[in-house]
Structure prediction request, 421 residues.
Amino acid sequence: MDIWKITIICFLSILTSPCSGLDNGLALTPPMGWMQWQRYRCVVDCDLYPDDCISEKLFKRTADLMVSDGYLAAGYEYVMIDDCWMSFERDPKSFRLQPNATRFPSGIKALSKYIHSKGLKFGIYADYGTHTCGGYPGSLNYLSIDAQTFADWEVDYLKFDGCYVDQSEMEEGYAAMSGFLNRTGRPIVYSCSWPAYMEPSGIKPNYKALAKYCNLWRNWDDIDDSWQSVSSIMSWFGKNQDRIVPMAGPGHWNDPDMLLVGNFGLSYEQSKAQLSVWAILAAPFIMSVDLKNIRPELRDLLLNKDVIAINQDALGKQGTLVLEKNNISIWVRQLKPHALNCSSYAIAFVSHRTDGYPYRITVKPSKLGLFNEDGYLLQDVFDKIERPITTPEEDIVVRVKPSGAVLLKAKPLCDSNAIQH
Prediction:
């Protein structure tokens, strides 16, 4: 289907489902959940890897653990399939996508019902191109059929990838899929991917269109299980914040990719750093980890209520990189005011140092944009330590471990509840 046909289809469907915008009222805070890709990739040999292969067994087990181990109660509500769930052929009669029959013998609708029975929501993966990145059938020429299939399966979240398609067609094609999803009448969070293909190629995507058609969008390269990967994504978001931050807000979010916490590549301190920056960025909190075998201290990081509260703050304002000092990055996010001109803030100090000891750094709140004359009560989000009241011209003093983070919440004293909470 060429770009003109896609545009015509979108125009003709306007009476029943406007293509002028995503109109689903979803993702008013950044989505939270679990997705298989980073931890399990495209493992499909269930004989050799029975506990790791992409199968209904994996997703049912994860759903059970999401409930029993407190993740759902903490706000992680989506269980999502990524690539490699499909058969290599569409149904020959209906042309619908179908799952691999060996690994998903009960079918996707049954898996969706199982996940919903646990009080969770269900997400799935597809690709706008001729094939998915793993070589399975893509949605090009089948947008309407696939949108309706997902609605019939009671899908709540769609990750729509962008392999094997011309980048010049992406904006219009993703917009068309947005319209087809609207048309089903099923509320489906729509995660788009076209910036992740354009940005590394030096092409600036239309972020206004992304905010119009998508609930969230991947901005940059896939995350890998390493501190180097996390650092490079942080760096990209800091360098490009002036053009991407204005597009983020309730219902439409920038997405730096999945959380690595609990996997193999990050230390405990580096895990704190990723969580801190993702919370400041108002990024989706999408885990990708073996929940059965995660270490308790890393599970506790993922379930930290104060970190989650910052990430899910109802103001929905993405934070920014405000200052870099002695190879420490300082990120700041304004939180929802409790009274007029009385905002709390989250402040993340992230170390890119490797010199082997907790580095002492000082900064005045006024240098970070905090000007409440009565001062701020500072709470260490991870260590649960309350620090002395600090006025705008007094120093905040922290020590940050190498490649680690200190995350503070600054509560203004004009808030009558600041000292009690």
